[in-house]
Amino acid sequence: MTVKKRKSLVINGPNLNMLGKREPEIYGPLTLKDIETLTNDLCEHLSMDITWFQSNHEGAIIDRIHKMKKEKWDYLVINPGAFSHTSVAILDALKILSIPIAEVHLSNTYSRESFRHTLLTAQAATIIMKGLGIYGYAFALNALVMK
Fold first, then answer.
1. Which long-range contacts link 79-82 to residues 24+ away (Cβ below 8 Å)?
2. If you count Cβ atoms within 10 Å of the first and of the last residue's Cβ in the chain, which end, N or C, has fewer?
3. Per the residue annotation, which of 57, 66, 85, 105 is the catalytic one?
4. 117: pLDDT confidence band, cut at 50, 70 and 90?
5. Does 137 participate in catalysis according to the annotation?
């Protein structure tokens, strides 16, 4: 019997391409590519194809979410970065989807500046993972499968 492979898209927002260089005391020394490799390895048991996308541009993230509606995806994991605090447009795009969504934040946003305490985009999320560092993506993917 063949098990159907699930498909998950992981979208990363602005400045996440600078991981490893940007505030390593908060985000750690690993690059986004390192985190992708680690997450893919940790989630190998899930029978899942994981595709990664990163953009520093709000419109590109919205366009990618819109494109998902026409494609066959089982899950979305999104780390909108700073857009999570400001983007009603990304929130509205996420609400178009009818699949489970996990929002991931590497740091605990509540232990940081007060403007980071509001997560607009999380209103569309099924699951929110924050403060788990580099393991947040793997925990999110596992949680979506178990939900």
1. 79/10, 79/11, 79/12, 79/13, 79/16, 79/103, 79/104, 79/105, 79/106, 79/136, 79/137, 80/11, 80/13, 80/121, 81/12, 81/13, 81/14, 81/15, 81/16, 82/13, 82/14, 82/15
2. N
3. 105
4. low
5. no
